[in-house]
Structure formats: C-alpha cells, structure tokens
Amino acid sequence: MIERRNAIYIAVAIVLAIVPAFLNAYWVDVLNSIGIYAILALSLNIIVGHAGLFNLGHAAFYAIGAYTAAIMNTSFGIPVLWLLPLCAFTAGLFALIVARPIIHLRGDYLCIVTIGVGEIVRIALINNVFGITGGANGIFGIDRPTLFGLTIRSPYQFFYLIWIFAGITIFLFHLLEYSRFGRALNYLREDEVAAEGSGINIAHYKLACFVVGAAWAGMVGNIYAAKMTIISPESYSFWESVLMFTIVILGGSGSIPGVLLGAFLIIGLPEIFREFANARMLIFGAAMVVMMIFRTQGLLPSRPRTYDLTKVGAGEGSS
Amino acid sequence: MSLLSIKRLTKSFGGLTAVNNVSFDVEAGQIVGLIGPNGAGKTTVFNLITGIYRADQGEILFDQQPISRLPTHRTITLGIARTFQTIRLFQNLSVLENVLSGRHCRMKSGVLSSLFHTPGQRREERSALARVLQYLEFVGLREQVKQLAKNLSYGNQRLLEIARALATEPRLLILDEPAGGMNEQETSSLVSLIQKMRANGITILLIEHDMSLVMRVCENIVVLEYGSKIAEGSPEEIKQDPRVIEAYLGTEDEE
Questions:
Q1: CA distance B47 to chain A (A)
Q2: CATH 1.10.645.10 fits domain B1-79+170-255
Q3: A104 has pLDDT over 90
Q4: Mind telling me how many Å the CA of A216 is from chain B's nearest CA?
Q5: FRET label pair with A129: which of A103, A285, B24, B27, CA 20 to 30 Å apart?
Q6: Closest by Cα among A278, A280, A272 to A242
C-alpha cells in the first residue's frame, strides 16, 4: 500500500518536472497558482483536516507573510528568500496572539470568529495600518527572488521554485502526520474530552496547529509576494480563505493526496473551462452540495495510519 | 499513607448539590468501590478528581499533593488514569492508536522533531509501539490491533479504554462502570483483569452497579446517596449496614 502510494507520488513528480517543456507560459502560470494554493491548503489542512478546527480566515496568515516579505524587502533590501523564516515567524506569532483568546470556541463559533480575523487583517491593510502597508494600493517593487545567484523571473523558473517547495511541504507534513504531534491533533478532533482525559494538553495542541498552519501560509505569502512583485489587500480577501477551505473539504480533509487533487480541481478546472466563467460559482456550489450528500469525507478521504509492527522489538519497550 | 485523599469535597450545579461534603481515602494498593443509587454523585466525584469539574469546596490530595486545581492532562501525567461511563474512544482511529494516545503524556517529541522525524523521535515511536502491544496483550486485544475502535464489540471497547488508561502508566486507575454492558463471562474476566492490575501495583477506584463484582473485588467500599457519604467499610460491613439497605431497597414505612 505504502509502496503504491510512493510510486504514484514519484510518477506525478516526474510528470510535473517535465510538463513545463510542453506548455506555454500561461499554462505554466496556472500550474504555479495550483502549486501555491496546494501549499496553502496543505497548511490549512493541519488545522481543519487534522485538528478539526474550522478556520475560514487563513488568508490573514497568508497576508501577514506576504506583507512581512514586502515591507522588509522594499524598506531594507533584504533578499526575499532570506525572509522566509521571518515570514513564518510573524505569521505564526500573529496566529498565536489571535488564536489564544478564541481557541476554546467550538465548531461554528470558531469559524465565525476566524472570518472576523480575516476581515480585520484585510481592512487594517487597506487602512494603511502603522503607515507601512501602503493602503489599498499595496506595496510594489518587491525584488525577484534569487537562488544560488540565479534570479527567478519567468513562470518556468517560478514553477520549479513553487513545486519544489510544495514537494518539501508534502514530505514534511506526511512525517508530521505520522508522529506524536499529528496523532494528538486527530485525538482532539475525534473527542476533546477523551483526549484531555488521556493526558493530552488539548489547548496547547489547538494553538500549536494554528501556529504551524499559519507559519506555513506565511512562507507561501513570501513566495507569492516575490512572484507578483506587487501585493495589495484584495489578494487576501475572504474569498481566498473560502477557496482554501473548499480545496480541503472537497479533496478530502486530513488527506494530503486529497488536498492536492482538490487544488488541481478548484484552481485548475476554472482555467480549462474559461468560457463558462460566468457559471463558475453555480458549478462550485452544486459540486459542494453533491459532495456533502454523497461523499462527505472528500474525493480522496484520509486513510487510517498504518504501522509496521514487525520492526517493533519485543523487549524494547519493557521497563 | 493514603495515595488519594478526598477531604470535605462539595460541588453544586445551580441549586443541586451533586457532591456534599464527601471525604474518603484510598490507600495505595487497594481496590476501592464507590457505589450508590443513580444520581448519587459518583461520576461527579470522578470528574472532580480528574479535573473535568472544579470543586466548590474541599481538597483532593494525590500522593500528598493538591490536585483539585490542576487541568485534566496534568492530573493524568501525575499518575491518575480513568475510563468513562459512556465509552469515549476515538471511534474512527485504530485500536493501536487509541492506546498510543495514552502513551502521549510519556513521550516528548514536539513539533520540530515530529516534522523531521529525528532519530530520537523514531526511537521513541518504536518503544511506544512496543509498549502499546504489551498493554493490548495484557487486556487481550492483541489480535484486534489494526481494527477501528468502532468495530469492536461493546465489551472489547471497555477493555480498550482500560488499555488506553494503562498506557499512561497510572498509579491510580479510576474505572467508571467497567462492567456496564458486559455479559457474565466478560465480567468475570474483567474481575481477574482488575486483580492482575492490582498485582502490578496499580491502585484502583471503581464505580459499579454490578454488586456481585463490587463485593468480589473491593476491599473497601464507599457508599454515596444524594451526594453525601452514608457508609464506608468492608464488603461485609456494607452488606449489613441498615442505611445502605435503606438507600438501595427503600424502607417499608416509606410506602
């Protein structure tokens, strides 16, 4: 089972690696968008899919990362990719501060508050908070990223930057899923009382998953800012949060392959069916309704973790 | 020296005093039963001990240490584990992972070592898995290790809850109606399991309605009625206590 999944990942990776050679710049850029949303949705998946906390304000963390990169780059000339850790830090810190007072809220209540957080961030950016966000016009003139002396400029170059970052994300989040941390999130999603009663500090893990998800979204914000060279508040609207949320739910919450498929469908399909652009919302809505009735776990639902018990030494655990 | 010491514990919900000035001790190595009619406040006492509720008054000492203000997960880490009256397993997770949740508080790896699977993290995982298999073997669920919790029979779900509690390495194990929904055969294997756990050095406090089980395994019994303690003693004393008989059967002049 595990071998087959790895084979699929490798096959997809190889196809992705060579496919830009056969596509024009426009379609490569579509794949770039898919990659960016895939990473964003994977980071949201930690919060929504694994911990079961409804977060409809993920664009706020994405925005914090993008603005951190833009401000530090345009004001101090620090190369954008160097700012990745700082973007992760500021977005994570912001998540820690806003999530702390609201984390005990359940289900829909948390969802509504996160919508509020997302809107507050967007409106604060429009209002040129602290005089550093450039108001509704945003910030322009962000440097292109450079990697090993090479300036990343064309969609083809960005394609590899984004998808290598996506690959690293998939790999690390897969490891995270198979760990004490990943399990703790699942326990609290399944039953908070039982999780606390089994010795798990659920308040800590709720906060931690917000911080990890936000930090990752912050790093995507950095790459997005470097790719666009201009960012403005409208890129971080409520609709962005809804898109990420839809990708997770439609693809399969808690499932990495599901989220990737969701990103391809939600971001890719509208590009393929451009002529039906007017009917997009209608089709989206209908698809969601059909999903909620017939396949509530998503297109590729998460599978139970498997453990290799043959390697577990019999005497190892005795104390 | 008593392992658990409950002193003048009071808890009310609105106008209802669920637990009223209850005191009792649990000595290390004992099996103590907490009995009483429905609504007597037994489960409330358990929830107070494990920190799910906060006591209005009174004190709970575990190993001489006050625990009534601690959050639940801290209490568990100190060495008190519990099962729930209504089964609260992680239904959609495997039997293995349910027991692994109990190991959580004895493991250390954090976000970063989980992200990168450091050698220390991998070693910890392996030894946790080995321990989990031992606990499953102990309660007799080794064969079902890969099944989802929700697919187990009712009796086996109760055993799984016990395995999960044992995985936290408790010194005191609190069982809330462990035999609820079990047939006679399952109940008698539960009795031997309880005695086996005690032989391993675990002190046990249990709520149970099955009187034959209580009388068979408990050395000390505390009886609650309407939130107050009405009797305490050995099974023989409790069986003959007129107030206990009255609480359970009612007196004749009541009618």
A1: 10
A2: no
A3: no
A4: 12
A5: A103
A6: A280
Judged by DSSP in three states, B152 sits in coil
Sign of the Cα torsion A275, A279, A283, A284 reads positive
ipTM: 0.88
**Partner residue opposite A187 with nearest CB, options B101, B111, B134:** B101
Residues in A lying within 8 Å of B, measured between beta carbons: 172, 175-176, 178-184, 186-187, 190-191, 193-202, 208, 212, 304-305, 307, 309, 311-318
Cβ–Cβ of A314/B130 closer than 8 Å? yes
Element (H, E) at B8: strand B2-13
- The pairing of strands B220-225 and B228-233 is antiparallel
Is A166 inside a domain boundary? yes
Is there a contact between B133 and A305 if contact means CB atoms under 8 Å apart?
no
* Start and end residues for every CATH 3.40.50.300 domain found in chain B: 1-79+170-255
* CA distance linking residue B196 with residue B198, whole number of Å: 5
- Which are the contacts of B124, defined by CB distance < 8 A and separation ≥ 6? A180, B107, B108, B109
Residue-number span of the structural domain to which A129 is assigned: 23-234
Q: Count the domains in chain A.
A: 1
- The per-residue pLDDT for range B66-116, each reduced to its tens digit, is 998 999 999 999 999 999 988 999 999 999 999 999 999 999 888 899 889
